[in-house]
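Let us begin with a simple case.
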Amino acid sequence: MSDHWTVAQIRKKAGQKIVFLLVLVVFIPILAACGKKPSHVDPPVGVIHDDFPRKYPDPSTDPKPEDDSSPDQQ
């Protein structure tokens, strides 16, 4: 048996690779769009707070980092 490829076999393999690449080009952007943030989110049912969605981390409870660049600390 010969180890040589025929022209038909080479074209078939190339065609399969092209189809695979086209499928990737079509479906990867669709999957990437799944993580898009909606412009408006309704608060969960029963929530008393009116500020939903809120900024994270919450500036009122998150401590600010200390500023190490002050000239007094030499």
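The second case is a distinct protein. As before, the sequence precedes its structure tokens.
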Amino acid sequence: MVLPTREGRPQQEGTSFMSCTLYAQFGQPSAPDREDAPEIRIVKTCIAERDIECDFVDAKRQREVFNRFYRCHKPEIRRSEAGIRFPVFFDGMTVRQGVVPILAYVLSGYGLEGCVADEVADGGTVGGLFPSRCPADQEGHFHELVDRIVRGGCRAHLLTEGTGARLLGKLLGIGEGTQVSLAVPMAENAEGEDFAATVGLVCAHPGARLLVRPVGYGSDGARWPSERTVAEAVSRVGGVGPGTVPPLAFADPSELGWDVPPADRRYVAACARACGDLPGGIDA
């Protein structure tokens, strides 16, 4: 299989995607001889079904091998206070970290770049899935990505930004393993019939939330949106939604890799006051 680069050329001119390594902690931490965790099985299955030859390195039991790789690619590998998040994939040119970015890269090369990320939603649910950002010609790959996660025994958390109702409807139809939240703030182009349809899908899905997330990546760094911005978003949802507005929740920055403090009680309370009597409540 030949994967495209950002410029649309094959990743390796005239050759297929052959020399790959997956670094992970295989087996279960308490019983390494048992089968891999579901997330690892999903990645391994996708690699095998795409006919990609891949070496598997256990980062814990083959620590020296992984450490050599890490020293060479340290700037490309995300490390938090909890350590390095596995799995990590390397094809000789590109490093991908996390279940969703690896699956996206294996399925589409750079095609899904910008609409996936290495994030974990509440309770270990697989996050980092942004259907509103998916290019039209990559919707098939995005659907396959989510389908593989759900069929593999994991839950997939979709974070819509208020656009792309057609794709969102297909994704939510995959099965009970899908969850959805509407991002706050929403996309600037979230409006009209598409926005109303998106809100309708969110409001109708069990467990849906309005998820407040930090914004901004400039010199000032990420920051929480203003209480007014949150209230305006809630008002817009209430204005087009078919029923009760989903509860307001606040993202955990530590799971997003952002250098911003968690939403404190004063901020949450200020958002609640700005929103008034929010029917769905506040999930803080």
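The longest helix spans residues 227-240. The first strand starts at residue 20 and ends at 24.
Keep these points in mind for the review questions at the end of the chapter.
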